[in-house]
Amino acid sequence: MPEKIRITAIGGSLEPVSSTKALMELAIKELTSLGAEVNVFDIKDLELPFFRYQAVRGKNAGKIVELLSAIRTADGFLFASPEYHGTISGAFKNVLDYLEYLSKDEPPYITGKPAGLIAVAGAESAGSGTLNAMMNIVHSLRGIVVPGSIAVGSAGSLAGNGGDRSSDQLKRRLKRLCLELYRLSGKLK
Fold first, then answer.
1. Which domain holds residue 26?
2. In this structure, how many other beta carbons lie within 10 angstroms of the beta carbon of residue 37?
3. What is the pTM of this model?
4. Is residue 1 part of a domain?
5. What is the tens place of the pLDDT at every residue in 38-58?
6. Strand partners for 81
7. pLDDT, tens digit, for every residue of 95-109?
């Protein structure tokens, strides 16, 4: 039997009810149905201090080590961030800053691994700035952006209902993103 595709999902927000988390959970459900083993890191639950190199010696060191281990062993990634003021949230960026600990790995960071991106905004025409910022970050980490990555505007109505209020079109886009991520992760494994 072939080895499972391992996906590490990082996202959500610090809000008690999060549209970003709701969409990420829909994507995780889809990835799992495809056969992926998904390791999930919710931004709010991580409770990471601002990044600094000495953080692995602090009170949340166990969470940091767990996150880095999941990233090192992943075949692909799902990143989901809300949009604040035209870009990713500070909390999401802070978690990604911890990937700096992977700079001396061989290969460094997430080299050659695919990342599916979900940018979630509250305004109808928003989201593209966040998606572009996420693409730049993945490229800087030497990863590969999955072509079907998506920006979602007017997502506020999705929160609190597990994404069940999402449109059929959005569900199709999420399904396509997950399929692309799953297939590309398998091919590059």
1. 6-188
2. 14
3. 0.92
4. no
5. 999 999 999 888 898 876 666
6. 119
7. 999 999 999 999 999
